[in-house]
Amino acid sequence: MSKAGTAKRPLALAIRAVFGVLLLLLGVAGFFAFAAGFADYPVVEPAPNAKPWIRGAYHVHTTRSDGNGTPAKVARAAKAAGLDFVVLTDHNDFKPPAATWVDGVLLIPGVEISTNAGHLAAFGMQQPIEGVKPWGPPEPAVAAVEAAGGTAVLAHPVQTKNPWNDEATAHQVPGFELYSADTFFRQALRSPVSRLLPAVGASLVNPVHGVMLLAVPEPRPTERFLELARERKRIALCGNDAHGVPAYEDIFNALDMELPPAVLSGPLSQNAREAASQVTQALASGQALCVFRALGAPEGFTLEGFDANTREAPVGTVLTVRLPEHTPGTLEVRVWGDGRLQPDGQHIELTGPGAVQVEVWAHAPGRFFGHEWRPWLVPSPVRVVPRPPGI
């Protein structure tokens, strides 16, 4: 064999190996695509005659920063997903457009501020944020949001890429992204075969199922959140962190923030500024609910037994979880922190002092043909305070 032929042989083998791997990956993706065709949503059927909740997406990016869709495109996607509002949080957009109605969807101005300690999302400002420069220290950013009358949120605070690493301001900021779609995606990148490939394959047939396969919570966000929630009232939010990939509509169909009628009953004001104030005040109250909407609507759910305004209850209190009608075995209540779930699965004894996080999880379609437990309804935590003397 000539020297030229000998030199070409390793290259040919390498090319065959690459093609072989690609064919294998395509075959695996095709298997997950086939399985996705049998994924049945929702897990919980809608309650008949229930009063609908106001729904929206929080933490969304447009072409004003690194999103691939204009605000109008985002509004169209939100309308298709049945949303009432979208909180736009473009990076370092300190002069966003005023609140406006587009295609029947309320676009609410917000911002995601890049600091040298991580990313700080904010909404509900009554005046412009001033005196803040991108990638500066976190203290001025937190103070500027407060001075503007807004609500600050630690965006994806334990994410590997952009975690929040300033301890002092972490204790000052009321909001915390407990679940983040962007964080789920970045976690999947670290497990490309077991998590990312199934999601990509499923997305070819059932895009919402593909997004839901990424929703595999890890313990660190909840542990960190409960540390902070022991000190003061904290607000749990789920960030869509939507940039257009996956598609806005698919992200909106999978995950949203919802406002119970007891907190804000519709319809919203047709005055965009008034409606934005209604929504942002409701979000800041801590009474909004994060809903993995693909699994079902939350109508019929309540968490009872604490002060709704302060989100506090004394040690020894028993909280009650009321669940929507569902098929037995499809839902379960999960508890973290200073609470103990009782044998009936719907009452939680507060064992604090400290904080307790109560969530409802659903037996959702899995990566293959089976099912996996995933979060469905995520309220803000309840702070457990000492029982007054003599009681």
Automatic annotation (TrEMBL):
Taxonomy, superkingdom: Bacteria
InterPro entries reported in the protein's UniProt record: PHP_domain, Pol/His_phosphatase_N, Pol/histidinol_Pase-like
NCBIfam families linked: CehA_McbA_metalo
Protein species of origin: Corallococcus coralloides (strain ATCC 25202 / DSM 2259 / NBRC 100086 / M2)
A molecular function (GO) term: 5'-3' RNA exonuclease activity
Keyword Lyase: no
Gene3D superfamilies, A to Z: Metal-dependent hydrolases
Keywords: Transferase
This protein's name: Phosphotransferase domain-containing protein
